[in-house]
Amino acid sequence: MKVDRFEISRYSIPLLHPLSDATHGVIRDFALVTVLVRTRDGLEGVGYTYTVGSTGGGAIASLIAEDLAPIVVGQDPRAVSSLSQSMWRATHYVGRGGPASFAISAVDIALWDIKAKAVGEPLWRLLGGRDPKVPAYASGIDLNSSIPELEQSARIHRERGFRAIKMKVGKPRLVEDILRVEAIRELLGPDAPLMVDANMKWGVHEALRASRALAEYDVYWLEEPIAPGDTEGYVRIQREGPVPIAAGENLRTVGEFEKMISVGAVAFPEPDATNCGGVTAWTKVSNLAEARNLPVTSHGAQDLHVSLLAAAPNPSYLEIHGFELGPYLEHSLPIAGGYATASERPGHGIEFRWGELRPHLVE
Ligand SMILES: [Mg+2]
Prior knowledge:
The protein is of the alpha/beta class and 363 residues long. The chain folds into two domains: 3-120 and 354-360, Enolase-like, domain 1; 124-341, Alpha-Beta Barrel (TIM Barrel). It has helices at 57-72, 80-90, 98-118, 123-126, 147-159, 174-188, 204-215, 231-240, 254-262, 278-291, 302-311, 354-357, and strands at residues 3-21, 25-39, 44-52, 133-139, 164-168, 194-197, 222-223, 245-247, 268-269, 318-320, 335-336, 339-341. Strands 4, 5, 6, 7, 8, 9, 10, 11 and 12 form a nine-stranded mixed beta sheet that branches. Strand 6 (194-197), helix 7 and strand 7 (222-223) form a beta-alpha-beta unit. The two termini are 32 Å apart. The mean pLDDT is 97. Bound molecules: magnesium ion. Magnesium ion is lined by residues 197, 199, 223-224, 249.
């Protein structure tokens, strides 16, 4: 089996409603880069990655076309571990993160899709999973929402069957965050997991102050309180603050996760397979977490991560993120009773509706 050719496309996907967080302000669209990897005998792997706004989409598409496709074309796609290493080495000097990590992720995801299709198995089963059902949480990108709007969203999430909900924090004054969290905790009752996400808004001291105030509302995790490079700061917040820390959407290599996990900087590692190196890297992070007796969770890309969490022996909640691909997919992710279910189709089961995507193509 040999890879024959690549087909790379870049889209700008408008959001149905503008979203907001403490780093990006108002978000109106996201960039989607897709890659189809085809083999000479007719198998096709689907890979993709995404970024906020249009940032980096062009660089990612160009890295795939110019630097990664020549490494993979002519090779056996099932040798994905070795091809992954070749891609990391080839982009090392300009990479070790940034757009190179996104580009490698998209190709790696397509290769794993082919590998699973080649044996006729769903990806989660190929990776060792037993049960395709994964607990999921509804993730709000809602820093600009009013308290009544937050409450309305929480009610809708509950009607859809979600028990666990995440909301943004990082308002100009901590007291505003606390009032918002208090309102949602009251609405959800004492038992439902409630996560909060600060999107790197604070420094260590502000984060510790927030952690102590949030603990009163039994917050399940505090996500990205500070910038991702400050590992020592994370250790302090994790050790001295009462709320467990989640982080990972801005870590771009397995090495960065290894550092965070090994020094006890994070309680809920949150890799995103579309930006840390694909299924290969996500699984390595999951294994590192398990070795430290930690759960693993996910960021974004729920249609893919459902399969990876279903394969992990240490899964936490799957994030159901606001960058929805549902309208552009042949099969939307089944979610019921607070659980998402990975597909039984061979591969990861994600098939794009190319005709629906076409109006958003960036030439
Ligand atoms: Mg986040």
